[in-house]
């Protein structure tokens, strides 16, 4: 949410499903914390590579 200099509030909605975003963030957090050494994506099945199927 942003406020312009005239005090008008603008709410921006994400086009992404909140559950999808949460899963991606968990995967990335695991990577950053060292639980996962690398993220391998199959170019023919990206969703399945991320465990999202």
UniProtKB/TrEMBL annotation:
What is the top-level taxon of the source organism? Bacteria
Q: What is this protein called?
A: Uncharacterized protein
What is the originating organism of this protein?
A: Flavobacterium psychroterrae
């Amino acid at each position: 949410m942003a406020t312009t200099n005239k005090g008008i509030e603008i709410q921006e909605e994400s086009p992404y499903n909140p559950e999808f975003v949460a899963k991606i963030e968990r995967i990335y957090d695991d990577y950053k914390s060292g639980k996962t050494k690398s993220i391998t994506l199959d170019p023919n099945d990206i969703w399945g590579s991320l465990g999202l199927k």
